[in-house]
Write a structure and sequence with these properties.
By secondary structure, this protein is an alpha+beta fold. Helix content is about 25%, strand content about 20%. It has helices at about 5-20, 30-35, 60-65, 115-125, 230-240, 285-295, 295-305, 335-345, 365-375, 390-400, 420, 440-450, 455-470, and strands at about 40-45, 75, 80-85, 85-90, 95-100, 140-150, 150-155, 190-195, 200-205, 220-225, 245, 260-265, 270-275, 310, 355-360, 380-390, 405-410, 475-480, 480-485, 490, 505. Helix 1 runs parallel beside helix 5, helix 7 (about 295-305) runs antiparallel to helix 9 (about 365-375) and helix 12 packs antiparallel against helix 13. The two termini are about 45 Å apart.
Length: about 500
C-alpha cells in the first residue's frame, strides 16, 4: 500500500472540493454565523436507534441520550461516579443491597417531580424479563426493589456485586409515561423537542434542571445525521455544522484554524478485528493467533489517524486505568514467519479467504479493514471487504452473528470492568464473537463474586490476559478522537466512556 500516495490523493481531492464550495461566496465559520450562539448543530454519522434508554443499542444513541436522561449517579470527566438524583448511597457488607437517598424537588421534563416510586418503576422496567430477557441485561441481577419511604429506595441483587453502582447511571423515567420513544421524558439538562428519522434529533435547554452548576448553556441543539462522511469538512466549512466528534484525520487539514478549535483525546473503545469463533477456520486458536501475528498496529494507526492511536492487546482501553494492562500489547508483535507456521500447522499452508463486514458509516473502521487486507495478504490470507449499513451490521453481525470477521470499536456503557469483559462470557447475549473458554468463564465468575476490590481487580486483569492468550479477537487500538468545534463556542470536554455532554458547551467570550 502506498500510504503517502493515497493520503495525498484524498487531501488534494478534498481541497479541490472545498475550493469549489468557496467560489462566489464566503464560507461561514459554522452555523453560528447565521444563528449566533443560540443554536448548536452537532454531526453524527448514524441515526439513533431509540429515544428509550432501555432500548438503546448503539454507542451513538447513548451519547445523545446522555443529555436527556439522568440516573441516580453520573460519571464525571475524570471517570468518577458522582451522585445525581441520589444524594448518597450505601452498600451492604455482603455486597447485595444498594440503598439510595433521593434528592428532593428534582423535576422531570414534563414538570412532574421525581419520586421513589419512579425510581422503583424504572429499575423494575429495566429488569422486566416477561419478553424473554431483561430490557437492560445488567438489571437481570436485580432481585427486588423496595420503596422505604418518600426519599429512600433499596435495590437488592440476587448475588453480591460491588461493581453494580456504575449501572445506576441509566436514566430514571416517570412511571406515568408508557412510551418513551414517542414521549421521551427524562430529567437531564436537555429536553426532547423533535426527531426526524434519518435526519436529526432536536433538543432544547431544560430550565428546571436540578444542578444549576452544570446546567446547559446553549438553548437549542440539533444532532444532524451525516451519511456522506467524505464531506464532513465541507459541512463544517459551509456552516451547516458547528460540532463534529470523531472527525476523520484525513479531513482535518481542510479546516481553517481561525474558524475551528480541534480537541484531541481517546475515543474510549476497543477497536479490533473481531472474528466469529464459532465458524471455521476461526474456531481454531492457531488461525486466530496467525492473524494476530500478521498485523502491524503502528502501520494501521499511521494510516488511519496519523499515528495518534493507542495500541491495545486485550479488551480494555487505557482510560480504564485501574484495569488496563499495557504489556498485553507485546504478546503479538508482527511476525510473518510465525503466522505462516501457525497456518500450516492448522492445515492452511496456502492460506484461505474470508469476508470482513464493516459499517460504511465508520470511515476509521473501513480504513482499518483496508490496511488489514494488505497485511493479511502477506501470509496468504485473502480478506474481502464488504461495506454494509449500520442497521444491517447491528442486525446481521451483532445480533445475528452471521459473519466471519468485522472491524468495529466496542465501548463501555458503564464505568466498570464488566462493561467490557462481560461480553466474552460463554452465556452472554452480547458475546457476538461466540468466544468460549471454561477458564475465562471461571475467572470472570470469581471476579464478579468477589467483594474484595484488590482481588476483583486482579481477577479482571487475569481475564484480559486469557482473552489475549486465547486470541478471542485481534486487538488493535483505542482510536484517537478528533473533535472539531466552531470558534464561536468553547467548553467541550472528553469523558472516559462514550458520552457527548453538550451542557458545558457555551458561547466563547
Amino acid at each position: 500500500m502506498n500510504k503517502l500516495t493515497r493520503r495525498s490523493f484524498l487531501t488534494l481531492s478534498a481541497l479541490s472540493l472545498a475550493g469549489l464550495s468557496a467560489c462566489g461566496s464566503s464560507p461561514q465559520n459554522g452555523s453560528a454565523t447565521a444563528a449566533g450562539t443560540e443554536t448548536l448543530t452537532c454531526g453524527m454519522t448514524q441515526d439513533i436507534d431509540s429515544m428509550d434508554p432501555a432500548k438503546a443499542e448503539s454507542a451513538a444513541t447513548r451519547e445523545l441520550l446522555f443529555n436527556v436522561y439522568e440516573g441516580l449517579v453520573k460519571p464525571d470527566v475524570d471517570g468518577n461516579l458522582q451522585h445525581a438524583l441520589a444524594t448518597e448511597h450505601t452498600v451492604s457488607a455482603d455486597g447485595k443491597v444498594y440503598s439510595f437517598t433521593l434528592r428532593e424537588g428534582v423535576k422531570f421534563h414534563n414538570g412532574s417531580t421525581v419520586t421513589a416510586d419512579d425510581v422503583k418503576h424504572s429499575i423494575e422496567r429495566y429488569r422486566d424479563a416477561t419478553t424473554g430477557g431483561s430490557l437492560v441485561a445488567a438489571f437481570a441481577a436485580v432481585d427486588h426493589v423496595d420503596v422505604v419511604d418518600a426519599t429512600h429506595v433499596d435495590v437488592t441483587l440476587k448475588e453480591p456485586d460491588t461493581d453494580f453502582l456504575a449501572y445506576f447511571t441509566i436514566g430514571i423515567t416517570p412511571a406515568a409515561v408508557a412510551d418513551l420513544d414517542a414521549d421521551p421524558v427524562g430529567c437531564g439538562p436537555y429536553r426532547y423537542r423533535s426527531r426526524s428519522a434519518l435526519e436529526n434529533v432536536v433538543l432544547e435547554k431544560f430550565d428546571d434542571y436540578w444542578d444549576a452548576e452544570h446546567a446547559a448553556h446553549i438553548p437549542t441543539v440539533t444532532f444532524k445525521v451525516i451519511t456522506n462522511t467524505d464531506g464532513i469538512a465541507m459541512e463544517l466549512a459551509g456552516g451547516s455544522l458547528d460540532l463534529f466528534y470523531r472527525m476523520p484525520e484525513t479531513q482535518l487539514s481542510q479546516l481553517s484554524k481561525d474558524a475551528f478549535t480541534i480537541y484531541t483525546g481517546g475515543m474510549n473503545l476497543v477497536q479490533a478485528l473481531y472474528l466469529n469463533n464459532a465458524v471455521a477456520p476461526f474456531n481454531d486458536l492457531r488461525v486466530r493467533q496467525a492473524l494476530a501475528y500478521a498485523i502491524n498496529r503502528q502501520q494501521i494507526m499511521d494510516y488511519v489517524s496519523g499515528g495518534k492511536g493507542t495500541p491495545i492487546g486485550s479488551a480494555m482501553y487505557p482510560a480504564f486505568a485501574k484495569y488496563y494492562v499495557p504489556e498485553l500489547v507485546d504478546i503479538y508483535q508482527q511476525d510473518v514467519a510465525q503466522a505462516r507456521a501457525l497456518l500450516a500447522e492448522a492445515g492452511y499452508p496456502n492460506g484461505f479467504s474470508f469476508t470482513i463486514q464493516v459499517s460504511s458509516a465508520h470511515p476509521q473502521h473501513v480504513e482499518t479493514a483496508e490496511v488489514l487486507k494488505e497485511q493479511l495478504a502477506a501470509i496468504g490470507v485473502t480478506a474481502q471487504i464488504q461495506q454494509i449499513e449500520w442497521s444491517s451490521w447491528l442486525n446481521d453481525v451483532y445480533s445475528g452473528r452471521n459473519f466471519e470477521g468485522t472491524v468495529v470499536g466496542l465501548d463501555a456503557s458503564a464505568l466498570n470492568a464488566p462493561a467490557l469483559l462481560a461480553r466474552y462470557a460463554s452465556d452472554s447475549s452480547k458475546n457476538f464473537v461466540s468466544f468460549s473458554s471454561a477458564t475465562y468463564d471461571e475467572t470472570y465468575a470469581r471476579a464478579r463474586a468477589s467483594v474484595d476490590d484488590d482481588e476483583k481487580t486482579d481477577l479482571y486483569k487475569q481475564c484480559e490476559r486469557i482473552l489475549a492468550d486465547e486470541c478471542a479477537s485481534v486487538y488493535i487500538q483505542d482510536l484517537p478522537s478528533f473533535v472539531v468545534l466552531a470558534k464561536q463556542f468553547t467548553g467541550y470536554e472528553f469523558y472516559p466512556l462514550y458520552a457527548q455532554d453538550i451542557a458545558p458547551i457555551r458561547a466563547a467570550e
